[in-house]
Amino acid sequence: MSKKYYWLKLKEDFFERDEIKIIESQKNGKDYINFYFKLLLKSLKTDGTLRFRDAIPYNLEMLSTITNCNVDTVNTAIDTFIKLGLMEKWEDGTFFMIEVQNMVGSETSWAEKKRGYRNKKTLSSNCLDNRKTKIGQVRQEIEIDIESEKHQKLNQILLQKQISKDKQKARDENLSQQTKDNQVVEI
């Protein structure tokens, strides 16, 4: 029988959420967050419920024992979690971690091995494709560089022509002005 692995997926903005900021700002807020993570991990295999061997709902003392947290911390933290909508307490006394369905990931050891094999196979088959792609990219970069050089040379030529035209125009205007100045006006 293959093992099944579970993990929590935290979004990168987890600690930016209002609920988490409110909890952290309290006197023992860091302890409450630590306790919250322990409860999430404990509820992974049971789809969010906190029950001892799927038969007995955990009470505050039991949660204190299994999480190695002070009973007062557990009591205050659970009240806070319920008020903030992170946890529910059902009629039968079961605590339910609301967020766990959105945060859980799992796979069997066989699936992990199979995924590793597929990744290895994909990497080796992509090796040739990567070489071809890199050669194509180098050729494309060379072509882009050549085009860029052509554009630079063309811009330089056009700039030189414009400068020459401007100089010629300035000379013509200067010559015209000198001619006007040298003419004698007859009366």
TrEMBL record:
<dbReference type="InterPro" id="IPR010056">
    <property type="entry name" value="Phage_rep_org__N"/>
</dbReference>
<protein>
    <submittedName>
        <fullName>Phage replisome organizer N-terminal domain-containing protein</fullName>
    </submittedName>
</protein>
<feature type="domain" description="Phage replisome organiser N-terminal">
    <location>
        <begin position="7"/>
        <end position="121"/>
    </location>
</feature>
<dbReference type="Pfam" id="PF09681">
    <property type="entry name" value="Phage_rep_org_N"/>
</dbReference>
